[in-house]
Protein 1
Amino acid sequence: MVTAKAPDAYLHGDEGPVVIVPAHVASYLRRRIPLDRLRGDARDMRDPEAYYVLNALYRAALTYESPTDNPVPATQPAPVPQERLLSSSQAGALLHLTARGVRDACEKGRLEAQQVDGRWQITKAAVRRYRDAS
């Protein structure tokens, strides 16, 4: 159990407020909002600061969620072995959904996935979690 601090303990900055977000809070946010989609939106809107902040949140969450003693390096997202990645069609076959239904679940953040080059990549573990929650 993490001991919570007063809100002012997370607020810093001399040139305007800056919020320090612990990795477990970043993980909480990642599970509830589509951080990966938001990162892509910020990049597409050419807002580099928003993209970098959302990227830092995403990486902190992955580091916190890493099951090994080797945290995710700050310079790259957590690597996922290719054999564990599924396309929206493959995930749909396992979930008895159409590929469009899977993409919709990914876009709404109900199914954890990463969008790479416009395509959703979904881990088998994410499919299991989604199926168990349904």
Note: DSSP finds six helices and five strands in the chain.
Protein 2
Amino acid sequence: MKKLISLFAAIVLVSGLTSTAKAQTQGVTTTATGSATIVTTLAIAKSADMNFGSIAVNATAGTVVLLPAGTRSATGGVTLQGTGTGVAAAAFNVTGLNNATYTITLPTTYTITRQTGTETMTVNGFNSTPSSTGTLSASGAQTVAVGATLNIVGGQVPGTYTAAGFPVTVNYN
């Protein structure tokens, strides 16, 4: 009987030492807050078209450089005509979130075509005031003026040259 009690005690002892640990069965939870801020949409609207004015050209190619301030100069065989009547840089009204900054993206090239023909001239060298980044006023507005360079071949065929509008893109920073 002593052996039986010793065996029973040994089984109880081994059972107690080899019990398995149980994993936690309850989860732990916390929360996070979600939020969003809706801002005023950034918008751009043309307020003036670009006009290089009247130009004469001889047999030598040249350019007309139109600055965002609306002043122009000529190179090569190009002569500016008149007093600049009608000459204008393009202008755009940008509106959006008060005091916000934004980027300005201008085209790299633009082609204008003679209204009664197929002859073309290339416009490039686009620049603006403000240049690549603007800041809206406390009331959420700013005007962007855009100038460019008109490239004229020697003996360019006379006429009025135009094309559909060129793109100016603005995006919030």
Note: The radius of gyration is 37 Å.
Protein 3
Amino acid sequence: MSGVVVRWASVDDAPAMFDYIERNREFLAPFEPARGDDHFTLQSTATRLADEARLEFVAVDGDRIVGQVAISNVARAPVYLNCTLGYSVDEHVQGRGIATSMVRHAVHHAFAVERLHRVEAGTLVHNVASQRVLEKAGFTRIGISPRLVKIAGSWQDHVLFAITREDVD
């Protein structure tokens, strides 16, 4: 992962993030929910980055974004402090440890800064590489969630993983 820095994403990153999304649109399509063309605009990218309910980090190599990780669905109740995590990495830098580093960074932020208790992530059943990322980052496989997300036109089963604050203390 030499030279790659994981940092907070800001609205100023919208042009570079839009470039990342466009560069990887075809590559990531089999792994992500179908999105309308309005998702693939600079304006919608800036709007997502400005959304305070979504905590987003980017992996940057020079001035180029090569990955992103987001914490979303944050739930704060005295007995339920949870969130979900999603990530992707540029097609051309796969296998360099960037995803694992990003996931670890986001988990640390969720526990140390957001003071959450549990982070959950899911992968398509056949996405063994992504499952390995979560395992290397300390997540535990907790089961299968049938027909969790509509991807490539059909509801797809996902392998769910979780990590709690106790797992990293």
Note: The helical segments are 14-23, 25-28, 42-50, 98-112, 128-136, 165-168.
